[in-house]
Design brief:
Shape: elongated
Order of helices and strands: EEHHHHEEEEHH
Helix content: 25-40%
Number of helices: 6
Distance between the termini: 75 Å
Largest sheet: 4 strands, antiparallel
Strand order of the largest sheet: 3-4-5-6
Low-confidence stretches: 1-20
Structural class: alpha+beta
Strand content: 15-25%
Mean pLDDT: 77
Number of strands: 6
Length: 167
């Protein structure tokens, strides 16, 4: 790695942007100091002092791949957060607040007043009648003309009915 002087008359040196633009597959060849400098470029913040070379390299590689190929979808992120909280013993998040959505490509079918409706799950929402929608609830509302819970309308949630007679 090449270093350029930080300022005139300064004995400190810093890595230039061009020098820090290093391919992901060469990160394992860098020193801890070089990875810390690269971390500063990637995250615009100082890395935690406790992180070793391997973790620094993995985090930098992940950040670069996420920028290039995109990160996790919002439902996946929420589910991972819920699982982490469960693993750490946070009882407030033991039960999921939302029903996990089916995989992209799944086709949901619902009959309403003699018409069969097909909704395709895609990465960033749903397709119905060739139009993208962000939620199942908006599709259910368009189909019925009234406000519905989308996952319930498409049979993805159980309707819980309590026995109110005290039995």
């Amino acid at each position: 790695m090449h270093f350029a002087p930080a300022a005139r008359g300064s004995h400190r040196r810093r890595a230039t942007y061009h020098d820090l633009k290093i391919a992901v597959d060469t990160l394992d060849q860098l020193s801890r100091a070089e990875l810390r400098a690269l971390w500063m470029q990637e995250f615009a913040d100082r890395p935690p002092a406790c992180l070793g070379r391997d973790v620094l390299a993995l985090a930098i590689a992940y950040a670069r791949q996420e920028r290039r190929y995109g990160g996790l979808t919002r439902p996946v992120t929420k589910e991972l957060d819920r699982l982490l909280a469960h693993a750490l013993g946070d009882s407030a998040t033991d039960t999921p607040t939302t029903t996990p959505l089916p995989r992209a490509g799944t086709i949901l079918v619902r009959e309403w007043q003699g018409t069969t409706h097909h909704v395709t799950v895609v990465d960033d929402g749903f397709l119905w009648n060739g139009q993208p929608h962000r939620s199942l609830s908006s599709i259910a509302r368009a189909i019925t003309g009234t406000k519905w819970n989308g996952p319930r309308f498409f049979g993805m949630r159980e309707v819980i009915r309590e026995n109110r007679r005290g039995g």
